[in-house]
Amino acid sequence: MIITIQARNITVTVERDGKTIVSDFSFTVPTGRKAALIGEEGNGKSTLLKWLYDPALVEGYATVTGTASVSGTKGYLPQELPKEDRARSVYEYLTTHCDADALTPAALSRAMKTVGLPFDLAYSDQSMGTLSGGERVKLALSVLLLNDCDVLLLDEPSNDLDLETLLWLEGFLRSVKKTVLYISHDEVLLSRTAEAVIHLEMVRRKKIPRATTANIPYDEYMSRREAAFMHQAQVAQFEQKAFREKKERYLAIYNAVEHAQASVSRQDPSTGRLLKKKMHTVTSIGKRLEKEQERLTEAPEAEWAILPKWLGGEVKNGRTVLSYGPARLTLSDRVLSENVALRISGPERVCIVGRNGCGKTTLLRILKTEIEQRGYRTFYMPQTYADVLPLERLPAEYLAPDGDKASVTEARICLGSMKYTTDEMSHPIRALSGGQQAKLLLLKAILDRADVLVLDEPTRNLSPLSAPAVRTLLGQFRGAILMVTHDRRLIEEAATRVLELTPEGLVPFDTSSL
After folding, report:
1. Which alpha helices (DSSP H) does 264-323 contain, by range?
2. Would you state the torsion angle of the CA atoms of residues 227, 229, 230, 235, taken in this order, to the nearest 10 degrees?
3. What is the pLDDT of residue 267?
4. DSSP codes joined into one string, 336-387
5. Is residue 183 exposed (0-12), middle (13-18) or buried (19+ Cβ within 10 Å)?
6. Which residues of the chain have pLDDT under 70?
7. pLDDT of amino acid 291
8. Is residue 184 classed as helix, strand or coil in its secondary structure?
C-alpha cells in the first residue's frame, strides 16, 4: 500500500487560550483513498487541513508540532472564497491561481467538462462573488485539476450547495483519481464517498482531545462506533453494579467491626486485639477495592448532544398556519417566480428546496411575516445567525433575557444538556462556533415555547455527530415547521411535505432522486 499523506505525533494548541485540541496524533492516507475528517466545530479539523497544505495558514491562531509528509502536488479548497477572489472575474481567478502553461484551450475544456461548467464561463468577466455557491466550488475544483494536483485537501466543499450540485459533487469525489482528504457536514455525502474516517473529538467536558482513524467506509465506522459504545455501556453498567454490591458488603463488615471496637470493654483486651487485627484485614480489603474501582470499565464518552424536550408549542391538526398567494416573487425588480402559493396546516413540516439563487430565503422571510400576522408564536432561524443573535451577550442572558433566577437556571441546565462547558457559558456568543450558535438558537425556540418554526438551513453548521439529535428534535415538534434545507437526511426524517421553488411557482418535489 502506497501512502500519500503521513502525519506523525501531531499536537495542535490554540494560541488564544493555550488549549490543546489535538494531542500526539498520527495518521496516514493511502494513495487514491477518499478520507473524511470529522468532528465537532472547534476540534481542529480545518486547522489540521490548512497546516497540511501550508503551515503559514495557521500562524497566529494555532501552534502545531509534529511532522507530516505529502507525496505529490497539494491542492487546497478553503471553506470560504477569499475576499480578494470574490472581486476577481472568473478569468482573472483562473489566471491568478493556475500555472500559465496549464491554461491552454484544450486543458480548460477538459477541466470545465469534468466539473460540469460551460467552457465559455472560463473566459467570463463575471465576478466570482456573483456566482452561485455551486459554481464557485466547481471553479475552485477546476483550478486544482488544471494544476494537476495529486492530493486534494477540501474544507467543506458541500457548504451552500443545492441538491443538484451535491449529487454532482458525490459523483466527482467517487470518480476523481486523486487522494482526497476532506471535511463535510453532509452525512449523505460522507456515506456515499468516504472510504476512510479520521475523527477528532474533545471528551471529558471538552478538556481531553481524542483522535480515531479507521480505514473503513463512513457508515461502517459509525455503525461500529455505536455498537462499541453500546457494548462498553453495558459492560460498565454490569461492572458498576457488581462493584456497588461488593462495596456495600464491605461497608457492612467495616461498620460492624468499627461498632464492635467502640463497644469492647477495656477489661477484655483479648477481644480488642482480635478486633484490631480484623480491622486491619478489613482496611486492606478497602484498599484493594479502591484499586479495583480504578480498573472498572468507564461509561463511554462522546460529544453527542442530548437535546432537551419541547416545553410547549403546538398547532392543532388541520388548523391553518399559512395561506399565501398566488403571488409573484421578486428581488430588486427581478422576477424570481410566478404564481407562488402555499397553504400550511398544523402540524405540518414543510420543506422548500431549489437551485441556488432561486429565491428560497427571500420567500421564507415573506412567509414568516405572513405567519406572524396570524398571531402564532413564531421562531425564525436565519442562515446568518448574527441577524438575530446578540453577539456580545452571554448565552444564558440570551436565553433568559428577563434575568429571573429560575429562568437563568433553566437556561444553564439546557446549555449543559447540549454539552456547553462552563467556559463557553461565560464567554459572549460571538466566541461560539457556528455549530454552538445554531444549537443556541434551537434552545431559544424551545424556551420561547414557539408554535411555528421558520428555519433557513438549520443544520448547515452542525457536525454529522450533532445533526442526528437535531433531526430527532425537529421530528418531535408538535407545532408547524417551514424550512429551507439541502440536508437530505433532514428532509427524509423530518419533512412531511417537500416543495421545489421554480420560476413557475412551488411544485411537489420527488425525493426519490436524492
Report:
1. 269-294
2. 120
3. 76
4. EEEEEEEEEETT-EEEEE--TTSSHHHHHHHHHHHHHTTT--EEEE-SSGGG
5. buried
6. 1, 299-307
7. 87
8. coil
Over the stretch 1-49, which tens digit does the pLDDT of each residue have? 688 999 999 999 999 889 999 999 999 999 999 999 999 888 899 999 9
**In terms of C-beta density within 10 A (0-12 exposed, 13-18 middle, 19 or more buried), how is residue 247 classed?**
middle
Beta bridge partners of 59: none
The length of the chain is 514
Amino acid (one-letter) located at 81: L
For 27, 68, 373, the CA distances from 179, given in Å and listed in that order, are: 14, 15, 53
Q: For residues 186 and 193, what is the distance between their CA atoms, to the nearest angstrom? A: 11
Residue pair 337/501 in contact by the 8 Å Cβ criterion = yes
Bridge partners (DSSP) listed for residue 35: 181, 196
Query: pLDDT tens digits, residue range 48-75?
Result: 999 999 999 999 999 999 999 999 999 9
| Contact (CB, 8 A) for 189 and 169 | yes
Q: What is the pLDDT of residue 179?
A: 96
Rounded Cα distance between 131 and 447, Å, is 39
pLDDT on residue 219: 96
Beta bridge partners, 243, equal none
Sign of the dihedral through C-alpha 400, 304, 475, 471: positive
Q: What is the pTM assigned to this prediction?
A: 0.84
- Please tell me the distance from the alpha carbon of residue 365 to that of residue 156, in angstroms, as a whole number: 26
* pLDDT at position 303: 47
Alpha-carbon gap, residue 288 to 294, rounded angstroms: 10
Amino acid code (one letter) for 79: Q
Assess contact for 52 and 10: CB atoms under 8 A. no
Say if residues 205 and 301 touch (Cβ distance below 8 Å).
no
Whole-angstrom CA distances from 181 to 34, 172, 273, 469 are 6, 14, 71, 26
Residue 1: per-residue pLDDT: 66
Q: Pairing mode, if any, of strands 208-214 and 196-203? A: antiparallel
Whether the ω angle into residue 326 lies within 30 degrees of 0, i.e. cis, is yes
CA 25 to chain centre: 21
Q: Can you give the pLDDT at residue 301?
A: 63
Predicted local confidence at residue 422, as pLDDT: 85
For residue 206, which phi and psi values (nearest 5 degrees)?
60, 35
Helices then strands, each counted (H, E), the chain = 16, 17
Give the whole-angstrom CA distance, residue 213 versus residue 222. 12
